[in-house]
Amino acid sequence: MTEISKPGNRQDEQVYLGAVDEFLAWGKENSLFYLLFATACCGIELMQTGGPRYDVDRLGMIPRATPRQADLMIVAGTITHKMASRVRTLWEQMTEPRWVVSMGSCANSGGPFSKWAYSVLNGVDKYVPVDIYIPGCPPRPEALIDGVMALRERVRRYRTLGIRDEAPHVVQGAACEFGSHPKKDLPEPKLPESTA
Amino acid sequence: MTALAPDVLTERVRGLAPAIEAQVSENGQAWLLVPARDLVLVCSHLRDHKDLAFDSLMDLTGYDLSRYPSSPRNDAIAVVYLLHSLRHRHKLTLKVYAPRADCVVPTVSGVWPAALYFEREVWDLLGVRFADHPSLRRIMCPDDWVGHPLRKDYLYPAEYQGVSHERDGQRFEHGPRRVGDPDPAPPTAAPKGDRG
After folding, report:
1. Which of B84, B104, B81, B113 is nearest to B94 (CA)?
2. In chain B, which residues have their Cβ closer than 8 Å to the Cβ of A112?
3. What is the DSSP letter of A138?
4. Which band of pLDDT confidence, cut at 50, 70 and 90, is reported for residue A179?
5. Which of A122, A181, A184 sits opposite B165 (nearest CB)?
């Protein structure tokens, strides 16, 4: 965006020129409201990140208690097979554009549970499309903020109005209603992939 | 309030029903082996007798005796009742052996309502059916889960709702047996800690 001072007008009056898409992306990038979704010890680090010492509010990130107001889901913790369909439901309730950060080894790949636990999902990306993976067990707040900064790069490139590739994102699991599992009849979920 | 010593307690409960084995364990705790058909009778007496007054069911759990091949009852699942008397401050352990082939134990939820959830848990994880339980459903695993995970011959599922347990085709060496795996070689030695 270019800042133009208009000569002759009041000194504090300023005009910005730029593409609408860039402006919208700028707004999204600086107001990533995240869904409070913590299932294990990663959630403690997530709370720390939101607390006064790391203060993720300064990046415009404010926790939301409902997926309908959230742009970003930070999957912080172990996801069991029983929980996975609920994660998917929450993700579907978020308004587009939406992003997912997988925080910690459990959400990335099952972590310490991947071998001997019968009940743990080996990676949340089998149910929802993940944008950023953050390694660690659990990751420190610095690592989470680093992941968020990487995500902001991605959000900055997101085009709301412009043409974007609708690359299908392969997800193994899909929507499940409580008590019934009609996922095999549903089409493959698609992620609005950003263009560089 | 008169707390009964473990040896006095075993003497008091020995005559409640035929075929009851009452013992004091190595660490000085009284325990009682009850045949399944007498369980509700014995439990009602333990709760209602004024000198015994076991008014609290602290825990109800179980274990698989096939972990102990040298045990005479290695074909059984043990159900364990941990009782506590808030009035007299003494404790008692009850055990019932349910053969795997016909794994049924009468419910004690009529005696202690706390047993309602405990018995659902034992049913879920060990596959012990509690006769006359008003609502014997799974409590931890999803409703459509196959098998009872804490049984020692439990086969891990290869997938759940079409979502594979494997990640990128990775298989762990010496990992759990999954559905579809070949039969394992028979164990060469009894496991350590075999005490029946």
Report:
1. B81
2. none
3. S
4. very low
5. A122
Q: For the complex shown, is ipTM > 0.90?
A: no
What is d(CA A165, CA A194) in angstroms, rounded to the nearest whole number?
Answer: 7
Count of residues for chain B? 196
Whether the CB-CB separation of A88 and A128 falls below 8 Å is answered with: yes
Looking at the partner chain, which of A81, A85, A115 has a beta carbon nearest the beta carbon of B175?
A: A115
**Cα–Cα distance measured from residue A80 to residue A124, given in angstroms and rounded to the nearest whole number:** 9
**One-letter amino acid of A49:** T
* Model pTM score: 0.77
Q: Are B83 and B91 in contact (CB under 8 A)?
A: yes
> What is d(CA A25, CA A1) in angstroms, rounded to the nearest whole number?
12
End-to-end CA distance of chain B: 36
* Structure tokens that stand for B128 in this block: 């012990």
Q: How far apart are CA A84 and CA A90, in angstroms?
A: 10
Instruction: Give the pLDDT band of residue A5 (cuts 50, 70, 90).
Output: low
pLDDT in tens, B48-64: 988 888 999 999 999 99
- Distances in Å between the alpha carbon of A121 and those of A1, A86, A100, B96, B175? 44, 13, 17, 35, 16
Contact B120, B141 (CB under 8 A): no
* pLDDT at B148 exceeding the cut of 70: yes
Which of B152, B160, B168 should be substituted to probe chain A, the one whose Cβ sees the most A Cβ atoms within 10 Å? B160
What distances in angstroms separate CA B136 from CA A92, B107, B186, one per listed residue?
A: 33, 10, 35
More confident residue, A77 or B168: A77
B159 backbone dihedrals φ, ψ, rounded to 5°: -155, 160
